[in-house]
Design goal:
The protein has 545 residues and is α+β, with helices and mostly antiparallel strands. It is built from 25 helices and 7 strands.
């Protein structure tokens, strides 16, 4: 049995690979007739068969993209598998066309959909076309400001009941983020450090991952994953999501070129049978993660259905008290005559999609803010001052929604962090027919001619570089690469205003543009400006005797 299984595995791998090879080679022959892309400058390719693919798409590609920003025009050709020609852009007009004006002709890559549905089910992130428009209509009201307002207390609950107690009240027994971090600091002090004035290090990213999961857990799903009590308590979901991101990150090639074909072969149970037998560890890990998420979503969903059937009291007893995204969605969905009703598997599909879209992004933004503040004590002090004053004005209570969202320095710190360190640095699209892509400013082709419009053949992959748009010195000014919250407190450069960046938020591409922009962007800002309140006074921590 063992022998036949691994032989079958090898045979199947070889077969799948051959089919793909033939398919891609056929497609590339068509591409060679297009001159529009070939005339665009491109960084030299490192590999004869993968082109720039590995340079551009890997977790350490920062230098490569910085080079694109510094040495190339905001539209560059990339050579991918077997000469497959792709584009990477951050020209404002081009971005507007791809993401807003002509967005119907630039789909997300098929692999996002086929692979995404396999992993998450039919959620907002993983579907397209009319089904996506319907889900978006159903979900938009769920993310309204009114609902966000109601969620603020949930955020406060997670992060802390009483602000700034970190420094002053060392023995605070509640289970939440602040006491969790404080316990860790105290443990560190008693064991590692004799000198209690010595600085201490905290691995803030793992704390923020747990926080982000708990925030979207409670406010998104009405479910508590983690009481944030101590180091050992992290919910398995946190690890799974981080692993999912890195595992998927390592599978660029398979996701771009293989999944599309693979999902067309046979029935789901046959594909599962094949996957179980393929000698492919990453694939098996993805399978197990996806099973885990689906089972948990089903459990949570069942619990909510029971509560909704049990009436208002049962709902009020739940985590989130019925004010979380899923409860709102399920209630709207039950309303008679509601126009955009979702099927049960679509409702279920939202859960892991939401967690996935919310967690890694939020945790990376929060960790980044805290890290910066731990190195910029001047900024930290000023921010602390602003927050303390706002708290004093409301009697040292949690700062209410309207005051919270109008603190100028906090706002500038959040914006600047989201500008320079966008948690999602690129989005990917594929042209679904031959297109003409206009540019804000002409670029010089390899043959020296000036190019103001690019001919994009059907099926060309186009990457929008969010990060390079946010960092472009041509529009943000020569200090574009510096982290400077003050830039938001004085008038923004004319070049920036005139560039008409299509992003939904604050001239930034961070939350994307158009009908597939981030639906959770207000949610995440609120997470950020709420959580920032509870910053320890620098990571240099001196407990009182
Ligand atoms: C700092 C935090 C966040 C950032 C930077 C961010 C960024 C983005 C970006 C760039 C996209 C577009 C992806 C693409 O088109 O390929 C997106 C989509 C999405 N985001 Fe966020 N996001 C954040 C937080 C959240 C949160 C907290 C939620 C939910 C509560 C959320 C829910 C979604 C959903 C559902 C989509 C898919 C929308 C659609 O396709 O219609 N995001 N996000
Ligand atoms: C941190 O707190 C201490 C004591 O409360 C204060 O003296 C110090 O100025 C604060 N530092 C910053 C950067 O806010
Ligand atoms: C806080 O979040 C709100 C969205 O609810 C946003 O409008 C505001 O700009 C944010 N403020 C800060 C201080 O980041
Ligand atoms: C573009 O390519 C897709 C996928 O092969 C094909 O279905 C579609 O008909 C093409 N569109 C046009 C306008 O040629």
């Amino acid at each position: 049995m063992a022998v036949s299984q691994s032989t079958a595995g090898l045979f199947l791998s070889a077969l799948v690979f051959t089919i793909l090879w033939v398919n891609i080679a056929r497609r590339n022959r068509r591409h060679q007739h297009s001159h529009g892309l070939a005339n665009l400058p491109s960084p030299e390719a490192k590999s004869w068969w993968k082109g720039n693919f590995d340079q551009a798409l890997n977790p350490k590609a920062w230098d490569f993209h910085m080079r694109l920003l510094k040495e190339y025009a905001p539209v560059v050709r990339l050579d991918a598998f077997l000469g497959d020609k792709q584009l990477i852009v951050f020209d404002p007009k081009a971005m507007h066309h791809i993401l807003v004006k002509d967005q119907a002709m630039y789909d997300k890559p098929k692999s996002t959909f086929s692979g995404g549905v396999l992993i998450f089910g039919k959620g907002l992130v993983t579907i397209q076309g009319e089904a996506h428009r319907k889900q978006r209509r159903a979900l938009n009201p769920v993310f309204s400001i009114a609902h966000m307002r109601n969620m603020l207390p949930i955020f406060y609950d997670v992060v802390h009941k009483v602000s700034i107690t970190l420094i002053h009240e060392l023995r605070f027994p509640t289970h939440d983020l602040v006491s969790g971090i404080r316990n860790q600091l105290e443990d560190g002090l008693s064991s590692k450090f004799k000198d209690e004035n010595a600085p201490q290090e905290i691995e803030i990213l793992s704390w923020m991952s747990r926080t982000a999961l708990e925030l979207v857990g409670q406010a998104g799903l009405g479910y508590s994953f983690d009481d944030l009590a101590d180091d050992s308590g992290a919910h398995p979901y946190t690890g799974i999501l981080k692993q999912l991101v890195t595992t998927l990150g390592r599978m660029w090639f398979i996701r771009s070129y293989i999944v599309n074909f693979a999902v067309k072969i046979g029935s789901p149970s046959f594909r599962r049978w094949v996957l179980d037998r393929l000698p492919w560890k990453g694939g098996h890990r993805l399978r197990d993660m996806s099973d885990y998420m689906w089972e948990l979503s089903k459990q949570i969903h069942e619990g909510k259905k029971r509560a909704l059937a049990g009436g208002d009291e049962a709902v009020a007893r739940q985590v989130g008290k019925g004010k979380d995204i899923m409860s709102i969605l399920m209630r709207l969905n039950m309303e008679e005559g509601s126009q955009s009703q979702l099927d049960e598997d679509e409702v279920l599909g939202q859960m892991s999609s939401l967690i996935f879209a919310a967690m890694d992004t939020t945790s990376s933004a929060l960790a980044r803010v805290l890290h910066i503040l731990s190195t910029r004590l001047d900024v930290q002090g000023k921010l602390r001052q602003e927050i303390l004053e706002a708290r004093k004005k409301c009697g040292d209570q949690d700062i209410p929604y309207d005051e919270l969202v109008s603190l100028p320095y906090l706002d500038a710190v959040c914006r600047e962090t989201l500008r320079l360190y966008p948690p999602v640095p690129y989005v990917f699209r594929v042209a679904t027919q031959d297109m003409i892509l206009p540019l804000s400013n002409p670029v010089t082709g390899i043959d020296g001619t000036s190019i103001s419009e690019i001919h994009i053949p059907n099926k060309t992959a186009v990457t929008v570089s969010i990060i390079n748009s946010n960092r472009n010195p041509v529009i943000w000014g020569p200090d574009a690469l510096e982290w400077k919250p003050e830039r938001w407190l004085s008038p923004l450069p004319d070049e920036l205003i005139e560039a008409h960046i299509p992003g939904v938020y604050s001239h930034l591409m961070t939350f994307n543009a158009g009908s597939r922009s981030c639906i959770g962007f207000k949610f995440s800002q609120l997470e950020m400006n709420d959580s920032s309140i509870y910053l320890p006074n620098s990571t240099v921590y001196r407990p009182e005797k």
